[in-house]
Task: structure prediction
Amino acid sequence: MSLSDREKQVLEQLERDLYANDAKFANKISAPKSLKALVGGVALAVIGISIIVFAVIVQVFWFGLLGFAALLAGLVLASSNWMNHDSLPQSGQKSPKGSKTNYFEERWNKRQGN
Result:
């Protein structure tokens, strides 16, 4: 079910207001994730689970805590929105015309009849 014209206008106005009032937050939530952080976080989480399983097998409480800490750190790292700020386009610059984002946006606009 698509949005009505009025709903689209309200949504666009909300987005413009968000970028105007809190540009830092808006960039943080819209910025892409770093693949290295995602892969590293998942790897750390898997290591943490392995340590927890080992701690249960050998029945050592401290290994369990260490495994839980590693698991938690991995999940935070994988779900965080950290990225290299050098890859962000500077204000006033637009992303290259051949980027995938623009391609998908153009396809969406064509599909919506815009």
Notes: The two ends are 17 Å apart (CA to CA). The CA atoms of residues 3 and 94 lie 27 Å apart.
